[in-house]
Amino acid sequence: MKIRFFIGIDISARTLDFCIMVDGKAIEYHCIGNTKKELKKLFRKFVSNGMTQHNSWICAEHTGSYGYRLRLFLEETGYRYSMVPAIEVKKSTALSRGKNDKVDSKRIAEYAFRFQDKLKESRLPEKYLIRLKNLFKYRQQRVRNSTRLKNQIKQLETQWECGPRDYMLVNAKMEQEQCGKVIKEVDRQIRELINSVEKAKRNHELVRSVLGDGPMTACYLLICTDNFELFDDTRKFASFAGLAPFENRSGSSIKGRTRTSKLRDRQIKALLKRGQFGNLGKK
Predict the structure, then answer these.
(1) At residue 28, what are phi and psi to the nearest 5 degrees?
(2) Residue 276: per-residue pLDDT
(3) Is the torsion defined by CA of 62, 64, 67, 73 positive or negative?
(4) Residue 256 binned pLDDT confidence (cut-offs 50, 70, 90)
(5) pTM (two decimals)
(6) Helix (H, G, I), strand (E, B) or coil at 32
(7) Once rounded to an integer, what is the mean pLDDT over residues 135-140?
(8) Is the predicted pLDDT of residue 110 greater than 90, yes or no?
């Protein structure tokens, strides 16, 4: 069935801005709260206007956890949708001035209409991967806090007026100790979660078999690749991680160096490089 309804959604923490485009023309705008109740009410109105799961396509930008409630609702009701990078939408538009949520929703709808042949249906990762991602992010926060406290303790110990029983020093050491306990508990929960899913356990062990790749590198690889189901080509993953070089030449005037792109997942590149740098000098 031909797709007539293209809906662009600008997602924020509290609100969702909708632009409804029918046959290439924007006809409606709506701003609702980012709640399941508001979504149900709005989509009942869309259905009364002739929209179905078969003649519509919904498009939104990646906004992390803000879009989780929307994606869950769309999958429960059977609507097709695509989550696209914000920079992709931005580069697809002509010279533009000004910015607000209503304009952004229209630009997303126009992007979906223009590139409808290239849109790929998005799906939420499995529940264990969402839980794993939340645990990994929480662990990162605790590690940063622990590093900050360690540096603070060193600074306090070098001050001549700060004795071993000084309140600031004692309190900083207690906080660092508590951070260490939390990190160990999160590591335990991550291990249990990975071991509870057979395919995740197998892939985690395969990644760890590579010299230099530790448990957290393997864990993040599971997260960013949806347990190695997101990419069907190693070249695509190399480009995603910022490991593939690209030429920078044009005619006879531009002769730049061949280098990796800055459009990459910085974290996975840092983890992979850190692991391999640790192998230097090892046999």
Answers:
(1) -145, 150
(2) 75
(3) positive
(4) confident
(5) 0.85
(6) strand
(7) 96
(8) yes
Q: What is the DSSP letter of 60?
A: E
Distance between CA atoms of 166 and 156, rounded to whole angstroms? Answer: 9
- pLDDT tens by residue, 63-84: 888 999 999 999 999 999 999 9
Three-class DSSP category at 27: strand
Q: Which two tokens stand for residue 106?
A: 């229209």
Say how far apart CA 245 and CA 232 lie, in whole Å. Answer: 19
pLDDT number for residue 281: 58
pLDDT tens, 149-183?
Answer: 999 888 888 876 677 778 888 898 999 999 999 99
The DSSP element (H or E) to which 26 belongs, if any, is strand 25-33
One-letter amino acid of 20: I
Dihedral of the CA atoms 258, 240, 89, 125 (nearest 10)?
180
Amino acid identity of residue 186, one-letter, is: V
| Range 250-260 burial, b when 16+ CB lie within 10 A, else e | eeeeeeeeeee
Question: Residue 85 class from Cβ within 10 Å (0-12 exposed, 13-18 middle, 19+ buried)?
Answer: exposed
The backbone torsions φ and ψ at residue 95, rounded to the nearest 5 degrees and listed phi first, read -55, 125
How remote is the C-alpha of 238 from its chain's centroid? 17
DSSP result, 243-266: -SEE--EETTTEEPPPEE-SSS-H
Per-residue tokens: 89? 């939408």
CA 263/CA 246 separation, integer angstroms: 12
Distance, CA of 155 to CA of 164 (rounded, Å)? 13
Which pair of tokens denotes residue 160? 């001549």
Contact 190, 184 (CB under 8 A): no
More confident residue, 146 or 23: 146
